[in-house]
Design brief:
Layout: H1 3-18, H2 22-54
Length: 56
């Protein structure tokens, strides 16, 4: 096995192990939840705005 390939495998394993903590996963899901909430609020506001413009 070439030294570069071995180094790449070790680095990928190190990153995978270090980033697989529950805190990181929890933060990702929390951020995703807030993005979803903001997206839903914006879509509902857009729908109300469009209906307001159509029926004036």
């Amino acid at each position: 096995m070439k030294p570069q390939v071995f180094f790449n495998i070790i680095m990928i394993l190190l990153v995978t192990v270090s980033l697989s903590s529950c805190a990181v996963v929890g933060d990702i899901f929390e951020a995703g939840m807030w993005i979803g909430v903001i997206g839903v609020v914006l879509v509902v506001a857009l729908v109300f705005w469009i209906f307001g413009k159509l029926f004036r």
